[in-house]
Write a structure and sequence with these properties.
It is found in: Cell membrane. The chain is α+β, with helices and mostly antiparallel strands and about 375 residues long. It has 2 domains: about 230 residues, 3-Layer(aba) Sandwich (Rossmann fold), CATH 3.40.50; about 120 residues, Beta Barrel (OB fold (Dihydrolipoamide Acetyltransferase, E2P)). It has 9 helices and 21 strands. The strands form 4 sheets. A 6-stranded mixed beta sheet has the order 6-7-8-3-9-10, with helices on both faces. Strand 12 and strand 13 form a beta hairpin. The structure holds adenosine-5'-diphosphate and magnesium ion. The site of magnesium ion (MG) has 2 residues, from helix 1.
Length: about 375
């Protein structure tokens, strides 16, 4: 296993008119499981393919285990990649699929290769499939074989490109747990790409968020969740998504008075709070962000209570999502025993410590929730 350094890695296509990956720098620790997440087209696959040696960077460097491999051919990098479409050889048996890579990448004897394949197949619970061809297998079994084929090589670095996207929800959950178990047992260094923020948040020791080829933020899942550096990250991470309201800010004595253009929404930040953040609050237009789970149904007398109407009640079992008549879309996540109906009038409230303020122009988070001191790195 190995530490990986990605240094100002860049990939342009079509003579520079497409910048798929824009000067990305990352340090991945030995044994760390890093998830890379972002919308379709943000540069995830291109990044992985450069790490694997399948795509030549336009600029920048890649170091694996301290060795500069930027110009090293894919087959001479000790890297295994697992794809969404499994990429198994259709005419080879499971055993042959698993053994083939070992034959190519190691000088183990035939009996040593066989022992490794059998041992890995047992670990992956596919020992009874070794004589089968891929088209005899279910989707879940194929993905297990693809994982086994990667693991049997004991590479320095594992790369996963949306490996579970073709599986149904239940199988995806169990395969996620399985990959995490293997990761723990084997202590593998892994980069796992997904467009699914939930998968990225639950699997990663660290999460890296890309948009349009640009690194947005990296950090522990909880850090990124609690202190998104910009509006994109605030909205991308978390489900249901963070609520946003465009607000104008005016001083009101020692406080700050926030209002939306429709006059439906008003919120005062306290003098003490404003005092602590005086340096950051220079603009007059922001987007206020608050997460659905931080919004409560409150008494009319609560601080900053907002009177509104319930548009839709979306029951999801343990919780109800209340879609409210604030801004374009505004959701409160409440306990399922809160009995409310569409059309009901309610007052809602949220604490100022849960408020994010994003600069209206740059999207930068100037005032993030202040549960802890910010430790965000970008
Ligand atoms: P993701 O995996 O995050 O969906 P990709 O890394 O596949 O994104 O693509 C990033 C960007 O690079 C996209 O805009 C995509 O259209 C472009 N791109 C990827 N491969 C090529 C290619 N071979 N030629 C031209 N453009 C490409
Ligand atoms: Mg992709």
């Amino acid at each position: 296993m190995a530490r990986v350094t990605v240094d100002a890695l860049r990939k342009e296509y079509d003579t520079g008119s497409v910048v798929a990956v824009n000067d990305l720098s990352l340090e991945i620790e030995d044994g760390e499981f890093v998830t890379v997440v972002g919308p379709s087209g943000c540069g995830k696959t291109t990044t992985l393919r450069m790490l694997a040696g399948l795509e030549e960077p336009t600029a920048g460097r890649i170091l694996i285990g301290g060795e500069d491999v930027t110009d090293v051919h894919a087959k001479n990098r000790d890297v295994a990649m697992v794809f969404q479409n499994y990429a198994l050889y259709p005419h080879k048996t499971v055993f042959e699929n698993m053994e083939f890579g070992l034959r190519m990448s190691t000088d183990l004897s035939e009996s040593e290769r066989e022992a490794r394949v059998v041992e890995t197949a047992e670990m992956m619970d596919i020992a009874d499939l070794l004589e089968d061809k891929p088209d005899e297998l279910s989707g879940g079994q194929k993905q297990r074989v693809a994982l086994g084929r990667a693991i049997v090589r004991e590479p320095d670095l594992f790369l996963f490109d949306e490996p579970l996207s073709n599986l149904d929800a239940k199988l995806r959950t169990s395969m996620r747990a399985e990959i995490q178990r293997l990761q723990n047992e084997l202590g593998i260094t892994a980069v796992y790409v997904t467009h699914d923020q939930h998968e990225a948040m639950t699997m990663g020791d660290r999460i890296v968020i890309l948009d349009g080829g640009d690194l947005q933020q990296q950090g522990k899942p909880t850090d990124v969740y609690e202190r998104p550096v910009n509006r994109f990250v605030g909205g991308f991470i978390g489900s249901p998504s963070m609520n946003f309201v465009d607000v104008a800010v005016e001083p009101d004595g020692d406080r700050l008075h926030l209002t939306d253009p429709d006059g439906e929404f008003a919120y005062d930040l306290s003098a003490a709070y404003v005092d602590r953040h005086a340096d950051e609050l220079e603009s007059s237009r922001y987007t206020l962000g608050v997460r659905p789970e931080n919004v409560t149904v409150a008494d009319e007398s609560a601080a900053n209570a907002i009177a509104t109407t319930i548009d839709v009640v979306e029951p999801v079992g343990s919780d109800n999502f209340l879609h409210l008549g604030v801004s374009d879309e505004f959701i409160a996540r409440v306990d399922s025993d809160v009995r409310l109906e569409p059309g009901d009038q309610v007052t809602i409230a949220f604490d100022e410590s849960d408020v994010h303020l994003f600069d209206a122009e740059t999207g930068r988070n100037v005032l993030t929730r202040e549960r802890d001191a910010p430790t965000v790195t970008t």
